[in-house]
Amino acid sequence: MSNHPTPAPLLDYVTSCALPTPWAQFTLHAFVEHATGKEHLVMALGDIGNGEPVLARVHSECLTGDVLFSQRCDCGAQLEGALKRIAAEGRGALLYLRQEGRGIGLINKMRAYRLQEAGVDTVEANLQLGFHADARNYELCLPMLEQFGIRQVKLMTNNPRKIDALTRLGIEVTERVPLLVNRNAFNNSYLDTKQAKLGHMMGTPVAAVAEDGQL
Ligand SMILES: Nc1nc2c(ncn2[C@@H]2O[C@H](COP(=O)(O)OP(=O)(O)OP(=O)(O)O)[C@@H](O)[C@H]2O)c(=O)[nH]1
Q: Where, by residue number, does the polypeptide cross the bilayer (predicted)?
């Protein structure tokens, strides 16, 4: 018998409901994180527990982009693009993690935006405020994916850190699906900085989410 105690669970699965969207009727699942009380979500579609790799997105909360239509980032368009792709495939999962502002929160992200308005880039702004360039970790993804029996994902991301993080957690990323959407005059230099300083794989951008969901 092992002397190692079983690690305490990071979060609890709480409940689910139907979530009709313009593209498909998802099931919304809610978890509560023990350490913070934050409510993390999974939008699921189709039979995601059948052992086949699941088209998946790990999406960090961005209230300004996801809800308030901000063009300063690509977050809202990525959220919409990912859901459209899952709907088109008829199967997939979007993990909605409450990691606003790359983990520094909304108010601090707004402070970082003010610094960017004064000329510094998105990474330097975080550092000037005393934060890491990217304060996120992805350990919650493991129990969230395990809840549905998901061990392999086709991950919609441009961020190599997400692929590394999931791989280290024991989730196999069988494929990376680029999510290049909504480069515009307001977020152009932000996206360039992500590529130059955070290692994002930005490839050839397209202007916007296409009507048919093909990105
Ligand atoms: N601190 C900070 N956070 C930002 C800024 N712009 C967007 N964010 C946050 O960054 C997170 C999204 O990160 P991104 O770098 O766009 O994307 P990613 O999640 O790393 O990678 P992808 O999977 O390719 O989208 C969200 O939590 C946003 O709120 C910014 O200028 N400063």
A: none
CB 181 within 8 A of CB 77: yes
Within-domain flag for 123: no
pLDDT for 181-201, tens place per residue?
A: 888 888 888 888 988 888 889
Is residue 68 assigned to a domain?
Answer: yes
- The alpha carbon of 101 and the centre of ligand 1 are apart by a number of angstroms equal to 6
> Does residue 6 lie in a domain region?
no
For residues 18 and 25, give the distance between their C-alpha atoms in angstroms, rounded to a whole number.
Answer: 7
15 burial (CB, 10 Å; 0-12 / 13-18 / 19+) is exposed
Question: How many domains is the chain partitioned into structurally?
Answer: 1
CATH code of the domain containing 161: 3.40.50.10990
Q: What is the ipTM of this complex?
A: 0.96
Residue 83 located in a structural domain? yes
Match 């959407």 to its residue by tokens. 181
- The closest-lying atom of ligand 1 relative to the alpha carbon of residue 58 is 23
Catalytic residues: 134, 136
Of the candidates 73, 51, 53, the one whose C-alpha atom is nearest the C-alpha of residue 61 is: 73
pLDDT (tens digit per residue) in 41-74? 999 999 999 999 999 999 999 999 999 999 999 9
- Ligand 1 binding pocket, CB closer than 6 Å: 60-62, 73-75, 78, 99-102, 104, 109, 112, 122, 126, 157-159, 162, 179, 194, 200
